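Support reply, case 0932

Customer input (verbatim):
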Amino acid sequence: MNVLASTISLTVDDVTASSRFFTEHFGFTEQMAAEGFVSLGHETAKVSIVLLQAGIEVLPENLRQQRASGVIVAFTVENLEAEEKRLRDEGVEITLPLREEPWGERLFMVTDPNGVPVELVEWVQQ
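Our regenerated output:
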């Protein structure tokens, strides 16, 4: 299999709010948009984000009312402390303070307006 691209598709109540969150705070840009749909791309990220309005008919009926539950959007970044400071300065609430896990992962978490957790990660050199 040759994977050409990767996309995370999130079903949310307020597409505009999540779109604004990812564009204002994480540098994504709107690639396509229609009623109840936004596709976001990023110059350096190897993943796109699609936001779908809960209830939208393009989804199979059994998925239309399911929200992005149990999903964590994670971005590996450089200079984690600087990213945390930048987000704090932009007024984003840090919902999980910066910490280091025993396996070498350093992380903190924020949450988008629809409750989607966004984790920023940096790996400690062993």
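We compared this against your earlier run and they match. Two observations from our side: The longest strand covers residues 94-100. The first helix runs from residue 15 to 26. Please reopen the case if you see a mismatch on your end.
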